[in-house]
Amino acid sequence: MKKVTVQYLFGGENSEIDNEEGILFPNGKVFVAGNGELGLYNAMETENQDVVTVDLDNDTEEFMRENPAVLIDLLSAV
Fold first, then answer.
1. Over the stretch 15-51, which tens digit does the pLDDT of each residue have?
2. Which of 4, 22, 40, 78 has the fewest CB atoms nearer than 10 Å to its CB?
């Protein structure tokens, strides 16, 4: 696991104002906690190893919405 900056792609664009800190798991999922909400998304690597992208245009599944215990499963696997 490592701390990363998460940028969101929405409408084909990303805005730095929406960037958040997150924790990247070895399986490519990223956990974010921002604006009073928690989320777990698929992350795409970028050229900068400290930044990942969440593509909300093409991969909108937020894994914790349906099953919050998925975070416990991720943590126990590390």
1. 889 999 999 999 999 999 877 778 999 999 999 999 9
2. 78
What pTM value is reported for the model? 0.85
Q: Are 25 and 78 in contact (CB under 8 A)?
A: yes
Instruction: Tell me the one-letter amino acid at 43.
Output: A
- Residues 3, 33: Cα–Cα separation, whole Å: 12
Cβ distance 19 to 7 under 8 Å? yes
> Distance between CA atoms of 17 and 59, rounded to whole angstroms?
21
In the numeric block, which tokens belong to residue 14? 């990303």
Q: What are phi and psi of 56, to 5 degrees?
A: -75, -10
